[in-house]
Design a protein that fits this description.
The protein is an alpha+beta fold. It has helices spanning 11-16, 33-42, 56-75, 81-92, 117-133, 165-190, and strands at residues 19-22, 25-28, 97-102, 107-112, 142-143, 152-153. The chain is elongated, with a radius of gyration of 22 Å. Bound molecules: zinc ion (ZN).
Length: 194
């Protein structure tokens, strides 16, 4: 129901989930530069953003490759080689290095990446994807059981079934309530004086 991006999953899943399911169908939550800014703000603290214009098309293209690789990982089937190559290339374009500094008392290091804003962002998204894809956790990633919902999540406990208890979980509870209500009413209806 909500079109606010689902966040708080591993970064790669948060990215894939920006193609969101709504009752009206799929919605791309990264359709405009403003959408991307909002998503980056929601992911603040998980990404280092370099000033400059970000190529939205490149972000969406990487997202599609990550989505395919995640599906393969979940299904334990061979991933598309193009997806692996794209994810690797994105990291190679802006590899991380440690910048040494001096704070007046001690030497410090800061994590940096060379490259423009797009390259730096893609490299971080690709790194997050690679880490998840090569981890046993990929086999635990689930798709929400909400009707028509395709959101992915990594359950912290095995009973989790919904992307969000407030939306899909609630919808399922409401559906169950009506189903139960209907079942309870139907026998009594035949015995009804009406
Ligand atoms: Zn859901």
């Amino acid at each position: 129901m909500t079109t606010a991006p689902l966040t708080g999953e591993p970064l790669a899943l948060d990215l894939v989930n920006t193609v969101a399911s709504t009752p009206g169908g799929e919605v791309d939550l990264l359709e405009s530069a403003g959408d991307l800014r909002a998503w980056l703000a929601a992911e603040q603290g998980r990404l280092d953003i370099t000033d400059g214009q970000i190529d939205l098309g490149a972000v969406r293209a990487l997202r599609a490759h990550i989505a395919r690789a995640v599906e393969a990982g979940r299904a334990r089937t061979p991933p598309p080689l193009e997806a692996l190559r794209t994810i690797t290339d994105a990291q190679r374009n802006a590899p991380v290095y440690q910048e040494l500094g001096w704070n007046g008392q001690a030497m410090t290091i800061a994590t940096r990446r060379p490259g423009n804003a797009t390259a730096v962002l893609l490299a971080q998204l690709a790194e997050a994807a690679a880490t998840l894809l090569a981890s046993p956790a990929i086999g635990l990633v689930r798709r929400c059981e909400g009707p028509g919902c395709r959101m992915l999540f990594l359950p912290a406990h095995p009973r989790r079934r919904w992307c969000s208890p407030a939306t899909c979980g609630n919808r399922a509870r409401v559906a169950r309530y009506y189903q139960l209500h209907k079942e309870n009413r139907e026998p009594s209806r035949s015995a009804n004086r009406d």
